[in-house]
Design goal:
heterodimer; A: 169 residues; mainly alpha; 4 domains; 7 helices; 78% helix; B: mainly alpha; Rna Polymerase Sigma Factor, Chain: A; 65% helix; globular
Chain lengths: 169, 201
């Protein structure tokens, strides 16, 4: 047996008593390695202490109480499901179905009406732009446009300069 | 039809179909191991019992999500540990609130009932008084992961892989947690381990 096997035996002893065969191998190891004896004794003593740790206190009616809690939980869920079923059943009766169909038809009609209104508004806006274009001034008015623009850039000081600017090709 | 090797998983599949008898069998079988873990995390018997009840209630509520991918006990103890951790966190935020407020969840009545004819399990004759108190104290002082690992490690129910899954860490990390926890326990219980006082009880 080597050190890792000894370690494996120790880990096994944390969970269960060693088998006779494992115990024999361990005894042989401890005889060959007396320094490990103390460590092993402490491990074994702690194992015994932990094995003898008492069970936590538990009420005799624990299971009954858990089952009661489950019953209550199930009843709550069943109540919720029954409300949902009721709503579903109501919904599929003829009158609510007709009412629902009316609501859907109303919404569709309203949507179509809104769409038509939007289209009419957009056409009216387009026509109004065209009307503004039709009322623009005569193009002759704009014949000196470039000269006036250059005048603004050069900012002439007197009438001669103004004249020169106007006569530029 | 496929067969389920883990009998607890087979029972849980029946619970998933709404079988209350199967659920009762599981509660009967695991109430004590769950309580042992919860009680050593929240060392107040009444509160620990309420929390243990909620562990099983949670099992029932989550039954529809249960898949036979892991051992039932691993799933159960993961739920138990998570509820314990939630409770510890809640206590650190709202120390004055009771467990009933935490788990009210629209139930009509609180789970704890006034009439409770408690009959506690008989104490182990080998461990009484001071020694038992010292062991419980030493365990309580361990970090939660080390304590849970050591408690789950007692007995043959859980493999190291199962414990690792519950603690959400690797197998080597789990063994390391157990080793460190045991070293601390050995230090704290040294006088009892040395003198063998526990043997005389």
């Amino acid at each position: 047996m080597n050190e890792s096997e000894y370690q494996a035996l120790m880990e096994a002893s944390w969970r269960r008593p060693l088998t006779d065969e494992e115990q024999a191998r361990l005894d042989a190891w401890l005889r060959a390695h007396p320094a490990a004896q103390n460590e092993w004794e402490a491990e074994a003593a702690l194992n015994r202490l932990l094995e003898q740790l008492p069970e936590a206190p538990l009420a005799s009616n624990f299971t009954a109480r858990v089952l009661q809690a489950v019953e209550r939980k199930s009843a709550t869920l069943e109540r919720r499901e029954s409300v949902l079923d009721h709503v579903k059943r109501w919904f599929w009766r003829p009158a609510p179905r007709f009412a629902w169909a009316l609501v859907v038809a109303g919404l569709l009609g309203f949507g179509y009406h809104q769409h038509q209104t939007n289209v009419t508004n957009q056409v009216a806006k387009g026509l109004s732009v065209m009307a503004n274009v039709a009322t623009l001034s005569d193009p002759v008015v704009l014949q000196d446009f470039e000269a006036i623009q250059r005048l603004a850039k050069s900012a002439p000081g007197d009438d001669d300069e103004l004249y020169a600017v106007l006569n530029q090709p | 039809m496929s067969t389920v090797a883990d009998p607890d998983a087979a029972l849980m599949l029946r619970v998933k179909q709404g079988d209350r008898d199967a659920f009762e069998v599981l509660v009967e079988k695991y109430k004590q191991p769950v309580m042992n873990l919860v009680y050593r995390t929240l060392p107040d018997a009444a509160e620990a019992e309420d929390l243990a009840q909620h562990v099983f209630l949670q099992v029932f509520k989550s039954a529809h999500r249960y898949e036979v991918a892991a051992k039932f006990t691993t799933w159960l103890f993961t739920i138990a540990r998570n509820l314990c951790l939630n409770e510890i966190r809640r206590r650190s935020r709202h120390p004055a609130e009771s467990l009933d407020e935490t788990f009210a969840d629209n139930d009509d009545q609180p789970i704890r009932q006034p009439e409770d004819l408690r009959t506690f399990s008989p104490p182990d004759s080998l461990l009484h008084g001071e020694l038992e108190e010292k062991i419980e104290e030493a365990l309580a002082e361990l970090p939660e992961k080390q304590r849970t690992a050591i408690l789950m490690c007692r007995g043959d129910e859980f493999s190291y892989e199962d414990i690792a899954e519950v603690l959400e860490c690797s197998v080597s990390a789990t063994k390391s947690l157990i080793h460190r926890g045991r070293e601390t326990l050995k230090q704290k219980l040294k006088p009892y381990l040395k003198t063998g006082a526990w043997k005389e009880k």
